Amino acid sequence: MKRVPVIGPTYEEMLHPWKIDAEIRKKAYEMRTVDHLHPLNLYNITWRGIDDQVKYFVLTKEFTGVDANIVVLYAKDMPSGSHKVGPTYSVLTEMTVTHQVDPLVHRLVWPSTGNYGVGGAWVSNRMNYNSLVILPEEMSTERFNLIEEYGSKVIATPGCESNVKEIYDKTHELRAEDPEHIRILNQFDAMANYRFHEYVTGNTMVETVRENAIGNGEIAAVALTVGSAGTIAAGDRVKKVFPHAKVVAGEPIQCPTLSLNGYGGHDIQGIGDKHVTWIHNTYNTDGVVQIDDMDCKRMLKVITTEEGQAYLKTIMDPETVDFIKDKLGISGVANIIAGIKTAKYYNLKEGENVLVVATDAIDRYHSVMAQQKTLDFETARAYHERIFLFQEPSYFFEGDQLNRARWHNLKYYTWVEQQGKTVEELNAQKDQSYWLEEAEKVSEIDRLIEAYRQKHAAELKEMMGL
């Protein structure tokens, strides 16, 4: 029989990990290399290291072609190797402390197009839950292997990254077969996903530029590709501090759902899921920009191979080249391209900062990179110049009132017609008070987490080996 669920940090502790009990934090940090599957690693879900510094790097003009700084938060060192571990932990923890799931009764189902499923597998098994991940069959081999390594079963559904309806159909089938025991943890409508990024990622962005005096110490724009549209919630927090900041959503040119009501398959794994998610605050989005998936894969090869690095070291600091070579995945490169196009579109100047995120790293894409053509020095130069230096701010759609209404209205077809939301709920999202109320729930959830940890202190201490 499984014991009580293991609960780790509060939202505030994920943002400011120095607020974690010193003994727990020290042992959790040591456990990263001793046993990455130990539940103490839950306390390593943060954008900061043991030195309390944010994990980030700054890309400058010789690499990006724009005067503004492209500031990249990277998630490679988080448990499971992706920042999606934050939302999965937040979703399951909120459901645990509000008594919506019980490991003695329920089996968790994580519908995903990649890193959310990997994070769900890692989190659920560290927290004493039995879980199942649903994933499109064309996702990278590494994703499937990690899910099984972390202790979950996986069901492969037809299609690629943008085949989300097929995932939903499978979740409905599983729930209909066993409604008493199946619980769906859907990143696309779970407000805990929104809260993690609004509070933890958004505040981390603000603190990064201020603590490190990057550029002018402000944020001019946040450019983030959207899958679940969780990460772009960071822009809501950034705007509370820097009201002039622009929040720009990126999506694949091969699947232009927001920009053109479009559809299609693509290979920027983790984004472009062919619908507008419930947790996307479209009325706070200032623009949508399209990105070519082949551009992302080609530049990832430049950054991560010896041939590409040899070229890059002729134009930029070699130490920077060595530092970033293992910290980006396909969507991370997509976010950088979105940042470049955003900086050009808004004519951002030297000293202004564009914040982006590297969701995962190259270790998740070796099988994808093996399918690309062999790279040489001149090809690396050509790719870099065309994709970064000469990137045009084209296919950029501004978030005027009508476009924001269009993006919002697209939710109706998925969420009201297919997923059981009401028109009244959808209409409520038009007002920013809806999103402010959701963000403000962080403090109440933190109180519930602290109460849970106090109630089960002896059991949690035993299970974590403290």
Report the uncertain regions.
none
Number of strands: 11
Largest β-sheet summary: 7 strands, mixed
Q: Looking at CATH, which topology of one domain would you report?
A: Rossmann fold
In what order do the strands lie side by side in the largest sheet? 1-2-10-7-8-9-11
Q: What is the topological layout?
A:
Elements: H1 11-15, H2 22-34, E1 56-59, H3 61-64, E2 69-74, H4 85-97, E3 107-111, H5 115-126, E4 130-136, H6 141-149, E5 153-157, H7 164-177, E6 182-184, H8 191-211, E7 221-225, H9 234-241, E8 246-252, H10 257-260, E9 287-291, H11 293-304, H12 306-312, H13 318-324, H14 330-345, E10 353-358, H15 366-369, H16 377-389, E11 396-398, H17 401-409, H18 411-416, H19 423-428, H20 432-440, H21 442-455, H22 457-463
Helix pairs in contact: 4-5, 4-8, 5-6, 8-9, 11-12, 11-14, 11-16, 12-16
Descriptive labels:
12% strand; 22 helices; Rossmann fold; 11 strands; alpha/beta; four-stranded parallel β-sheet; 466 residues; seven-stranded mixed β-sheet; single chain
